Hints:
6 strands, elongated, 3 domains, mainly alpha
Amino acid sequence: MNRFNVKCPSCTYPLDAEFYNQTTDLIECRSCKSKIQVQALPALYRKVVKSTEGLKAQLDDAVCFYHAGKKAEQLCDDCGRFLCGLCALPIGEEMLCSSCLELRRKQEFGQHQLKPRQMRYDKLAIGLTVIPLIIYFPVTIVTAPAALFVAIRYWRKKLEFAPGMRRRMVLALIFSSLQISGWIILISFIVWGVVNEQ
Length: 198
């Protein structure tokens, strides 16, 4: 059984265990066709013993990067650090250390990665007024009142890291009011024309 997913260093494509420890020629990666050689140590095939506390390290054992007295049980899939059972964080199919997990979060979400995603009602309101004008104008008979409702309902909602929110809300109020006024004028002209013809 292969404990770790050994990947091609060029393209990170997972390599099959049959390619490990080949003494003849270099093998070719199935994805990027680069020539590589994989030397797997016997520990790669040992059965995994998962521990939440971490095993005490013996004199000749590899130790955890973060806990010098604990035996290494896993490798971080990103940086390759030895990790004890306490430090190995299973994320999907991978094992990561806390540093690599934090680095991934920063890369994925930017510097405000710990903030939950928030609904941007200002962008919703402005979108409800502008997008129908571009795509299909008659839809504004429904979207303009919806935008007006969203802008009024969430006027006092304060979001962190949302510069320009008030400005977009004001624009949404103006645009939706103009669209509603336009519909009222249009409908009144139609009704007035029908009444005058009779």
